[in-house]
Amino acid sequence: MPIVSLLPTANYDADLLRATLAQLLEPFGGMGAIVKKGDRVLLKPNLLTGSRPGQECITRPELVAVVAEAVIAAGGKPFMGDSPAFGTAKGVARSNGYLPLLQDLNIPIVEFHGQRYEIAAQDFNHLRLSKEAMDADVVINLPKVKSHCQLTLTLGVKNLFGCVPGKMKAWWHLEAGKDAARFGEMLVQTAAAIAPNLTIIDGIIGHEGNGPSGGEPRPLGILGATDHVFAGDRAFALILGVDPDTVPTLAAAQRLGLTPPWEEIQFPHAQPEDLAISDWRLSDTLVPIDFGAPRILKSTFKHLYIRWIKEPMAAYRRGS
Questions:
Q1: C-beta separation of 207 from 217 below 8 A
Q2: Is residue 312 part of a domain?
Q3: Which of 23-37, 61-75, 128-142 has the lowest mean pLDDT?
Q4: Which of 8-12, 142-146, 168-172, 218-222 has the lowest mean pLDDT?
């Protein structure tokens, strides 16, 4: 049965985070039950942008460092990777204070590149995912709780879109952006393909309003962990008082049968109702998923897709 472990967590003090993380992971058997000696472990935070440090647009580096410590203690070999919307993973990490913590732990930062990875889903069999993510022995997903001007909320499922290389993320916004339901299904299928072993949700301080970067910090005081990313997202929607039918990823996961029945989800610590709030702010405006891009921009991305992905794969198949 899926587990969603929730604990009140006041701040990002390292000692508090270590103690909370240990308690949070007890129902799963601890980090040692997830990470084995020698495992290459991807730590996938939300590294959206380096332009607004202090505005809680990204997963806090203190949390990532404590998770990395636990991975190392279990015998794993952690590395951090992402494909930010703006800039490089290393550049965003530097702007947000990650580098000293990562250097102390000798944790490399990997820029995600792509490979063609076929998934068993109609219309998405040309989804291109990061080779680094797909080759990891263990994936620990580290999303930030945020409102989102296109997708209502960004949580664990949306965070895994960062495993799609940057240029392909732009392509998907344009290719599937006219249909929020289809875009949500693409995100859900991406998450299912990556299948994170553990999702640790940074809700200590969230980002509400015009997210994913234009809103404001909002203290929530919650840290969550789950072995089922879809169950974790559903639980946080309840905590925030957001109708899951208004969140394309949650609606798609439910429609595709990937969200477990609510009564089957185990909450070994705090219950979502005990942590619920009634005044979480969503975005004031809804932005089209395709950014309302002009025809010439769409045409350019279509050309790049055909030139660098579709045609090479067709040639490969003809030669095989």
A1: yes
A2: no
A3: 128-142
A4: 168-172
Do residues 125 and 43 make contact, with C-beta atoms less than 8 angstroms apart?
no
In whole angstroms, give the CA distance from residue 122 to residue 256. 12
Q: Which domain holds residue 17?
A: 4-289
Q: Answer positive or negative: Cα dihedral of 105, 13, 51, 171.
A: positive
Dist CA 15 CA 299 (whole Å): 52
Q: What single-letter DSSP state applies at residue 260? A: P
CB atoms within 10 A of CB 184: 24
Task: Please check whether residue 162 is in contact with residue 84, taking contact to mean a CB–CB distance below 8 angstroms.
Answer: yes
Residue 316 lies in a domain: no
CB burial of residue 8 (10 Å; 0-12, 13-18, 19+): middle
Q: Is residue 305 part of a domain?
A: no
pLDDT digits (tens, 9 = 90+) for 138-158: 999 999 999 999 999 999 999
Confidence tier at 160 by pLDDT (50, 70, 90): very high
Q: What is the C-alpha to C-alpha distance for residues 96 and 56, in angstroms, rounded to an integer?
A: 10
In a domain, 307, yes or no: no
- Strand 114-116 relative to strand 128-130: parallel, antiparallel, unpaired? antiparallel
Quote the tokens at residue 178: 């006219």
CATH of the domain at 34: 3.40.50
Residue 305's pLDDT band, with cuts at 50, 70 and 90, is: low
The residue type of 101 is L
DSSP 8-state secondary structure symbol assigned to residue 197: S
Are the CB atoms for 74 and 170 separated by under 8 Å? no
Report whether pLDDT(32) > 90: yes
Paired tokens of 257: 């049968």
Phi, psi dihedral angles at 148 (to 5 degrees): -145, 130
Q: Confidence band (pLDDT; 50, 70, 90) for 52?
A: confident
Give the number of domains in the chain: 1
